[in-house]
Every structure is written in structure tokens, then in C-alpha cells.
Give the backbone structure.
Amino acid sequence: MSAAPASGYLRADFPRAGNGITVGSQLNTSVPARLPGGKNTTADKLLVAASELMIERSSIEVSLSDIALKSGVNAALVKYHFGNKDGLLLALLARDAATEVANLEYLLAQPIAPTAKLKLHIAGIIRAYHQFPYMNRLIHYLLHESSVDAADEVSKFFVAPLLDFHRRLLTEGIKAGEFRSIDPVLFYTSLIGACDHLFFGRHAMSRATGVGPVTDEVCRQYIKHMEALICGGMLTSNNETAASAAE
């Protein structure tokens, strides 16, 4: 599997972790909104237009006519390339998930401690949801409101690889003596559920508590909160002390 793209994942201001490798603070879960020259096939243009509209409107409720207008492509070509609108949405999520999976593999291969990988992963998931707010809504829609085939595909290219990454990271951390024994499914449910609800359940919370939108500052606070919450329950006593001293 190819290494993660440098843009969005690696940041020059982060410390180097052995062998001259710079470790980034976030995982990039989407290709650039504008595709490089020579890559703008008709299908690509439709996907880019759909993602841009969803980000602009903070909603996945975009019509085929709006997507066609944004992309400059005839709406009838959606059926040719994707079958229908749900097919286009599935292809968009698959496109984003492919980069996410590559980034997970890249992170797992880095010569840094499992605890450091865990913290980068927590930050990456939260920032990815913030940067591409349509992702979690697409996942919910395709898993619960679309076809059985679509739900199976999402489980195959998004849920299963992420759960597999968690299994391997936890195994690595337990073997290194940094993590307590943790069930991967429970870990997945805790981390992804908590990150997802910050965005998916934001409207309900805003009505109940008056909280505002998820800003960059809210993301930073939530990353710090989730790191403390998850690491506080996962790290072995010795490693927890070392992690606290390093902060």
C-alpha cells in the first residue's frame, strides 16, 4: 500500500522521530478538493463538486442538478458513471476512505512508540471529521438509510480497515508494555463513537446546552480531552507516568 501523501499528514513543525522521518499531527482523509491537472475525468469532477457543495452547505442534501452545475458536467452522466445519486455518494466515501487507510498504514509503520501513534490517531480522526464534515453524515446515511449493498461496501472499505488498524495498534502497545489489555471492538466503539458524536450530535447538543459550532479551538480542546480520557484508561502505570512527564 502506498505511503500517505505529504500534504495534510506531515507537518514540518513536528519533531522528527528517528531515521529523519517527520511525524504529522493529523490524518488526511480526502484527496485535495481540486484535483491536479490531467486528473479531471468526468467522474472525478462530479466527486469533487459533490464534496465541495457538502462542505459549503454543511449538509449531504445536495441535488444532482446542483452537482452538475458545480462540476460543469451533464447530470445524466451521474447515472452513467455511478448508477444513481447513492452510487455517487458511495464512490465519494470510498475515495476518501482509500486515502484514510493509506494514512493509517503509514502511521503504523512509523518508528515511534505506540502511545505516540495513538495520540496522533486520536487527533487525526477528530481533525478529519472537522475538515470534511460530510464524512460522518455520509457514513450514517449509507450504513442506515441506503441499500444493504451500500452498507456492506462501507463496512468493507471503511469500518473493517479501521478496526483492523486498531487491533494491530493495540497489539503493538500491549506487546511494548505501554497499553493495558483492551478489546479492539470496545476501543473502536469508544473512540469513533466519541469523535462522531461531537459532529453528528452537535445539533442536538446546541439545542440542549446552547453550545456553538465546532471551531478549530473546540477541536483542539476535544483532542486534549480525548487524549486524557483514552490514555488515562489505556496506559499501563509506568507508561502513564512517563506520558504525563513528557507533556
About this structure: Confidence is low (pLDDT under 50) at residues 1-38. The radius of gyration is 19 Å.
